[in-house]
Amino acid sequence: MANFVDRVVLHLRAGNGGHGVASVHREKFKPLGGPDGGNGGDGGDIVLRVDAQVTTLIDYHHSPHRSAPNGRPGEGDERNGAQGTDLVLPVPSGTVVTTRSGGVLADLVGEGAEYVAARGGRGGLGNKALASPRRKAPGFALLGEPGQESEVVLELKTLADVALIGFPSAGKSSLVSVLSAARPKIADYPFTTLVPNLGVVTAGGERFTVADVPGLIPGASEGRGLGLQFLRHVERCHVLVHVIDCATLEPGRDPLTDLEVIEAELAAYVPHGQLGGIPLAERVRVVVLNKADVPEARELAEMVRPDLEEQGYQVHIVSAVAHQGLKELTFALAAHVRRARDEQVVTEPTRVVLRPRAIDDSGFEIVRENTPDGEVFRVVGERPTRWVRQTDFANDEAVGYLADRLNRLGVEEALLKAGAVAGSTVLVGAVDDAVVFDWEPTMASGAELLGARGTDLRLDERRRPSRAEKRDTFHGKMDAAARVRAEMEAERRSGKWTDPE
To answer: Which CDD domains does UniProt cross-reference here (predicted)?
Structure first.
């Protein structure tokens, strides 16, 4: 088990989006050249991609926590932040991506197949991108969104055409070693095989793969031994080969009984329904009576062969050690594999279906909730939640911009229809990280008293004062200061500033 892992739990965190920047262009004789803050870069995604060079999930067993790079923040002079690089995690072909509860997210089969397991956060807009004819000088920028965090389960289901199943020490590994170039570990004790061994077999013009599944024992479908852990590897196989030890000395063991026990375990095992394919009970069965080089074993095999054929099984008497009956078995398996491949339904590539939202879709809803602290109104929707995450609440202008966006979306009108009144508690955002407001309908903040939000009256001045106007303004200030000093001197002499002590 040190070199093969077929099930891991990954904790993924995609990259955060970079923050936008609020900046003003400055140059000689032009102190207010307009906004020039750049946008933040998007965070990197985490992508699972099938790589033919990868055969196990051992790397993710030792380091299950993976993070993608963050996007860089924007800078002045309209310089956008760099995008976070996507983190590509190579996985073997046949990897199934599921949730903790067992829901299938992706079935990765074939070189290059990929699945985005966690998406990076969107970068925030700088004040240059937020500028408009009505909002000429935004004094704020949007924050980058946090990257998605997810927890997925990777399960490797071996891609093989033929699966060798049976009791421990039935000779499955020996059979694979003589049918192909695979060299699995072979020993004279049970559970020598701890991992599935794959071998490639050529019979005539047909090439197919054979998987040696670790030994099964009674109760394997319920978790006894190693069976439940590796029964998933037979789900994708076209042909199931029962390898039966005809030379066993264990009491209570005989070929017919061994076959019934393994068949009962296969029937009790329930493969994942969402992956499709043929149920295990409907797969092609072939019975291999092994160790026929032992005289007593061959006599037993010849004795039970008619009974097995009467049950509908194709039976082969072989000896992996003496290389007896292997050629007939190889060509028979090739014929079954060829037939199964011809009958296999060709899966068409999944078409990308575009489902644009309706024009009148507001994208949110108001949920009225009763909490221990009283009644609250929760704004639920993707856009309001994203807008809240991107708002810098330390900037009054940014908060006002958020209020404008929510108002244009129709949140204020929906709150009124839901029964909200001035002072009602309104929650916007995720359930565990919502922003709480004491709602005041159509309330203007102090920034609006100085002009429209995002404007600067100095930018609207198209005419520069003349030298005479500047001189008159200067002398006016000096005269006003002289009058104030004279008034203060008169008050001092009249005793108005007398010290009470």
So the answer is: Obg (cd01898)
φ/ψ of 203, rounded to 5, equals -130, 105
**398 and 431 belong to one structural domain:** yes
Write out the H or E segment, with its range, that includes residue 428.
strand 425-430
The number of folded domains in the chain is 3
pLDDT tens-digit profile of 478-493? 999 899 889 888 887 8
CA dist 23 and 89 (Å) reads 38
CATH number of residue 177's parent domain: 3.40.50.300
Domain that residue 439 falls in: 365-460
Q: Residues comprising the binding site for Mg(2+)?
A: 173, 193
CA 341/CA 144 separation, integer angstroms: 50
* Domain annotation covers residue 495: no
**Are 213 and 230 part of one and the same domain?**
yes
Q: Provide the annotated binding site.
A: 166-173, 191-195, 212-215, 290-293, 319-321
User: How far is the CA of 49 from the CAs of 54, 96, 102, 104, 246, in angstroms?
Assistant: 10, 12, 20, 16, 44
8 Å CB contact between 24 and 109? no
pTM over 0.85: no
Q: 69: domain CATH number?
A: 2.70.210.12
Helix (H) or strand (E) holding 208: strand 206-212
Rounded-to-integer distance, Cα 277 and Cα 240, Å: 14
Give all strands of the β-sheet with 87-91 in edge-to-edge order. 87-91, 46-50, 114-118
Tokens of 132: 């408009």
* Structure confidence by residue, pLDDT tens digits, 108-128: 888 888 899 999 999 999 999
Specify if 467 maps to a domain: no
**HEC secondary structure over 28-78:** CCECCCCECCCCCCCCCCEEEEECCCCCCCHHHHHCCEEECCCCCCCECCC
